């Protein structure tokens, strides 16, 4: 059985007998770009369709009715805009209506007679054919005050957000809307003046929140994947209601990793330089002193006769003692013969018959450094019995350490040789110096000879000792060489 043919008039009657909703996909092109749009069209047999919303205006207050056909106006082919009341041209007593460029109608001093269904009719020409788009709104005049306020965007305000291309980003917009939530407030986003519906990566959400009796709207623009066309263009959050309009602007900028790399590089360079200075500090200071010798200046006289006073415990048998061999032979050979220092070594430079205590005090005050040689045999506690050499050593240390601790002159250099030193048998002042600045250690394993060529194996000791010694005047070094 063949189906009964259905006439076109039948379908036309079915469509026009009720309001139908059709989803339309369109492609719009201009001189610079093209874009796709998806929107819904309500098809009705009536010239004035049913009103999808209700608009409230307070009695005696001027208000606006909004055409809300921005998609039609953006086609740039609008020929005429007309407003109808109950499908009849608007006629009212008193001041007449006015229509702005967006098609919105201003209703001066609304009264109860203005209530009813209003329809905005927009005539448009496409491809040589004329169409009429219409939208209705139901106006209700109320005697209750309208609780709405002038909208104001709080953020963003010229905000710059650093992003990576391809990542997910959320932008938030908050705005003041008044003292109560109302359906007259609209909030939306644009990206480079295009609507979010034009980009599949963009979605919007809206919520209201209350703060200190005020109502704020917060809209979130979610960008699932940042594209390069979203960079460095204005991204606007727009809000409006019958009392006003405001907008905030944000910009997406690609994160500049070069600045981060430069910061990390600068930090690493600083770290390397600091570490290099820490480990090479002694070599750098000695090299600096060496350079200064080539630029001799007038030496500042400090009244000192010696660079260092060398104090050590004299053993009974000098020829067989490691401490005496180091102090009387190896130390002066390195510092005096090779580097031009002037040393005063008790037991070598003192004169027989002189008042020992007076000579020690006077000589220590004439020295820039006090080198104290310590070994495992050094014991100078006053509680233990002292022979003459120990008594002299104890006095040297008392005089030198007293000035060193109070005036930092002369500065003290501790040298440990021949194994670990037991500081429990030494004065408290020596223990304090040890804890504060440590001691240089001369390794006994290297004491097999007194020849200079054999001393390079212990060169770190000599470099550290020279680092703690004062600089040698250039003229004195030239006389040694």
From TrEMBL:
The keyword NAD belongs to this UniProt entry's keyword annotation: yes
Keyword Hydrolase in annotation: yes
Protein keywords: Disulfide bond, Glycoprotein, Hydrolase, Immunoglobulin domain, Membrane, NAD, Repeat, Signal, Transmembrane, Transmembrane helix
Gene Ontology process terms (BP): signal transduction
GO molecular function, one term: hydrolase activity
SUPFAM superfamilies noted in UniProt: Immunoglobulin, Toll/Interleukin receptor TIR domain
Residues of the signal peptide: none
Domain annotation Ig-like: ranges: 49-138, 156-239
Bilayer-crossing regions: 259-280
Pfam family, one: TIR
Record-annotated TIR domain positions: 304-469
Sequence similarity: Belongs to the interleukin-1 receptor family.
Protein name per the record: Interleukin-1 receptor accessory protein-like 1
Organism (species): Amphiprion ocellaris (Clown anemonefish)
